[in-house]
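Consider a typical record:
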Amino acid sequence: MEPKKDAYGQEVWAFFQKKKSYEIVERDDGLIDLTEGPAAYFAEFKDWPKIQKQAIKFAKGKVLDIGAGAGRVSLYLQKQGFDVTAIDNSPLAIKVCKKTRSKTRQNFAY
């Protein structure tokens, strides 16, 4: 995918570089959500929504993080000792994920 066509990747890449970045989610039921934005993809566990904190407790064994984005879930699970493979269809999100990983010295398989 060409970087200019990778809207999600552009969003997380800009945020990673400390540039202004916005997210507008419009569902097919008409709901438009402007609340979370790109910061949510980089949030520490303590700042995750309650439902996500509860869901992550069900992780076991080897984990495949599909749609890894900036890698926050993969990083969290690796810190908990899980063997994690992170994938995403956004080339720029993968770039961010790799750079996020290198900042924390975690290992991902891509």
About this structure: The mean pLDDT is 88. The beta strands are 25-26, 32-33, 62-66, 83-87.
